[in-house]
Design a protein that fits this description.
- With 380 residues, the chain is α+β, with helices and mostly antiparallel strands.
- The strands form four sheets. The protein has a seven-stranded antiparallel β-sheet, with helices on both faces. Strands 4-3-2-5 form a four-stranded antiparallel β-sheet, with no helix packed on it. Strands 1-10-9 form a three-stranded antiparallel β-sheet.
- The relative contact order is 0.17.
- It folds into two domains: 221 residues, Naphthalene 1,2-dioxygenase Alpha Subunit, Chain A, domain 1 (Alpha-Beta Complex), CATH 3.90.380.10; 104 residues, 3-layer Sandwich (Rieske Iron-sulfur Protein), CATH 2.102.10.
- The chain is 25% helix and 26% strand.
- The structure holds fe (ii) ion.
Length: 380
């Protein structure tokens, strides 16, 4: 079924989104436009480009972008597209003083302005004027950084980012969000539709079974659902299994000034469409989901410790353990998702039954999807 207007909210409540939307390429093309280009999608994190000249290329939902830090330390996000014949400028993360297009060597400064283009006037050997260059800068992209996550709004018309994120900002107002320190960044990819990766992250029910090394069934029984806005849902464990990943001699220090009653709390969130965000008292992880096609998804898992002391040499072994445990958990999900893609995108999946006790949050993500895809389709 590529006609998404036929999907009903009742079907989603009972069974989730129909199987076809997890493999249909017409639906995928529409998602690239309606959800990713028109929404606030994450692309990476600011500490991945910590030094002036750091450049991070990102491919996501049909877009090729670059995030880079200029010599003043400011971040910019641009289309990774030369202003001559649209060749991509950068393929790999790198540190450079300028960007040279591999096609015809047009050269751009790290702030996006065109520096030079070889023999621009052909046989007439003269230098480009500022006026010649003025309309040939890299095309900038609207962005915001929040909890170190870089969000972009490609079409420039989404609601102000502050309004978009406010409900979650308020939910986390007790946490010192500027004191987080990136400790690892790992890329993954899978033969899976991007929505299954989001759905799985919002599925607290699977955690004790797929990740039994990290969590017990008892520990997830106090799971509370969080419905924060039309874009943000989450899960809350008052007595989360927060000590589990740190199977080391000493525990990583928790957020500075965190209230006593929050020191066992784990919360994790899906920020529509593609940002997965987990806050433990002692660590934070973000997963940026990058759709590459209807059945191809890349993702980047970024892990942070949450105060200066935890980022010091004294805790190097504990950080290593944390990174190993969280990456092991993610690898278990990736292997599961590759298999789930085959069955969940087959029509037989439409006979599945969501479970009222456990599936409200991921079902709400499916309802968000339907609302945004159809409301915007009807506007055309
Ligand atoms: Fe999982």
């Amino acid at each position: 079924m590529s006609d998404i207007t036929q999907i009903t909210s009742e079907h989603i409540s009972a069974h989730g989104l129909p199987a076809s939307v997890f493999k249909d390429s017409t639906t995928y093309d529409m998602e690239c436009d309606k959800l990713f280009a028109q929404g606030w999608a994450s692309i990476g994190c600011a500490q991945q480009i910590s030094k002036p000249g750091d450049i991070l290329p990102i491919r996501i939902a049909g877009q090729s972008l670059i995030a880079m830090r200029n010599k003043n330390g400011e971040i910019g996000v641009f289309h990774n597209v030369c202003r001559h014949k649209a060749a991509p400028l950068v393929d790999e993360p790198c540190n450079k003083r300028s960007l040279v297009c591999p096609y015809h060597k047009w050269t751009f400064k790290i702030d996006g302005n065109l520096l030079s283009a070889p023999r621009y006037f052909g046989s007439e050997n003269k230098v480009m004027s500022e006026e010649d260059k003025a309309d040939k800068s890299l095309i900038s992209v609207r962005f915001a950084v929040w909890w170190d996550i870089i969000f972009v709004n490609i079409d420039g018309k989404a609601e102000p980012f502050e309004d978009f994120i406010r409900p979650l900002d308020e939910q986390l107002s007790n946490y010192p969000k500027d004191d987080i320190h990136l400790t690892s960044s790992t890329d993954y990819s899978g033969e899976v539709n991007w929505k299954l990766a989001v759905d799985n992250f919002l599925d607290g029910y699977h955690v004790p079974f797929v990740h039994s090394q990290a969590c017990t069934l008892d520990s997830v029984l106090d799971q509370q659902d969080l419905f924060l806005s039309d874009n943000i849902v989450g899960l809350h464990l008052a007595n989360g299994a927060s000590a589990k990943p740190a199977k080391t001699a000493k525990q990583l220090p928790h957020f500075n000034g965190l209230a006593e009653d929050k020191r066992g709390t784990q919360q994790w969130f899906g920020i529509f469409p593609n940002t997965l965000f987990f806050v433990d008292p002692c660590w934070v992880q973000t997963i940026v989901i990058k759709p590459m096609g209807a059945t191809q998804t890349a993702e980047t898992l970024n892990i942070y410790v949450v105060n200066e002391e935890a980022a010091s040499e004294e805790y190097a072994a504990e950080r290593e353990t944390l990174n190993a445990v969280l990456n092991e958990v993610n690898q278990q999900d990736i292997e599961l998702l590759d298999k789930l893609q085959v069955t969940r995108s087959n029509d037989i999946a439409n006979q599945g039954h969501l479970n009222a006790a456990w599936d409200q949050v991921n079902m709400t993500f499916h309802q968000m999807w339907l609302k945004k895809m159809t409301a915007q389709a009807n506007d055309e």
